[in-house]
Write a structure and sequence with these properties.
By secondary structure, the chain is of the alpha+beta class. Helices cover 27% and strands 41% of the residues. The chain contains three helices and nine strands. It has helices at residues 2-20, 30-39, 89-98; strands spanning 22-23, 46-50, 53-60, 63-69, 75-82, 104-112, 117-123, 126-131, 136-141. A nine-stranded antiparallel β-sheet has the order 1-2-3-4-5-6-7-8-9. The protein starts with a helix and ends with a strand.
Length: 142
């Protein structure tokens, strides 16, 4: 019985780590690391793969942030965690109306490469995305 339980725990841990797709910095293309260093000098990120792109997670000025780069080192977007109450009031109202009784677990401000700003609210284990004015865009299941 102990062997079965140990095997199940080990299997679950391996599955979880594979899902997170953490990446050793040595496996990140030089162009990507150079682009990150140029944009965020002096910061050492933790790297992950996200749908074929390279995501750098880091802290800057007390904020938890991430930056997403393609394999050529072109930054696609950056994201900064914000307090739930920093979301536009229209986002808070939308969540209250459409996800009755749910709470927003995390919030973020996303800035795309072209300067477009979106907001993200994590609700019921999914990311709910909004435009700069707080208008609903879509749900993304984790």
């Amino acid at each position: 019985m102990k062997k079965i339980l140990t095997g199940m725990l080990l299997s679950g841990a391996l599955s979880f780590s594979a899902f997170a797709q953490k990446l050793d910095a040595s496996k990140v293309p030089v162009h990507v690391k150079e682009a990150f260093a140029k944009k965020y000098p002096g910061i050492t990120p933790k790297w992950e793969m996200e749908k074929g792109d390279f995501e750098a997670g880091f802290k800057q000025e007390g904020h938890t942030m991430s930056a997403l780069f393609d394999s050529n080192g072109i930054m696609k977007e950056s994201e900064v965690d914000i307090k739930v109450m920093e979301l536009p009031s229209t986002v808070l109202a939308y969540v209250k109306e459409h996800y009755k009784g749910a709470t927003i677990k995390e919030a973020a401000k996303i800035t795309k490469a072209d300067g477009t700003v979106n907001y993200e609210a994590e609700v019921n284990k999914m990311d709910v995305l909004f435009d700069i004015n707080g208008k609903f865009i879509k749900e993304v299941k984790d």
